[in-house]
Amino acid sequence: MAATIRDVAQASGVHVSTVSRTFSAPHLVSPATRNRVLAAAESLGYRPNRAARALTTGRTHNIGLIVADISNPFFPPLIKAAQAHARLRDYHVFVADTDEDPLVEEELIQTLAKQVDGVLLCSPRLNNRTIERLAADVPFVVVNRRVRGMSSVLMDVGHGARLAIAHLAALGHRKIALVAGPKASWTGGEMRKAATATAAETGVELVTIGPNAPTEQGGLAAVRDVLAAGVTGVLAYNDLVAIGLIEGLEEHGVAVPGQVSVIGVDDVVPGRFNRPRLTTVAMPTSAAGRAAVDLLLSSVSADEPATPALMTLETSLVIRDSTAPPP
Fold this sequence. Notes:
Keywords: DNA-binding, Transcription, Transcription regulation. By secondary structure, the protein is of the alpha/beta class. Helices cover 46% and strands 17% of the residues. The longest helix has 17 residues, at 186-202.
């Protein structure tokens, strides 16, 4: 027969209510007692009844994770890290994909709000006002967007953009294109501000091309504008745009990095196997997934509304084969 909560209480020498609190409100149980209860539960193979616990605590022990495009290789490491980290806290994660559509994003939030204790919103395409309105229905933590009154995990893409422009300037490039992403992207706005400032500091002319779709097709579509601009270096919105751009340039007989250097953002796996191997700004996606789960569960378990927290994670430049001095 399956172990019961009473079996765990007897094995650990505590009251049944203490076992219940260990799983439903662990912050109310001393670390020593909690460890004793968890050890007994593990040895007996006990698993709490999630449905019954939800009725008792009012919590589902589920969280939602909404991403802009699950086919973009930027997101799977974040999803995987968030799921594993949530599982350690006895939470399940429901993953949903908006396909870069803000209307779909709003619909998914409204649907998940009835089934989860909180939502992780990653690279949202909704405007801040709509996100603030939806937050009345369910707690949020936002990844890669700053929203008033809401906890956020940011990856410092501005710092990465500064490193990228400075790298191209140090190689001798004097005219650089920023191939931008979607209009509603917080990341794109931060990149633009940082790239513009660094270009001015280093005496480089910066040309902005876009908005563009954050995909390989978006990079391919920007090729003609990049060639018409007469630049020798490019900072792309993300690695997918950079890969599409390299493919399009080579189709036009333009060598990378011999004639045009290209830098991406994200450090996704395809960029490491691309030819040439892609110079890129590495984004700490796995760390962001874990940090977002921690912030959300801290908010969910708090007895009173928690003060919004802001966490910024460091980025770095990974130099590979797609950048070189200009011809």
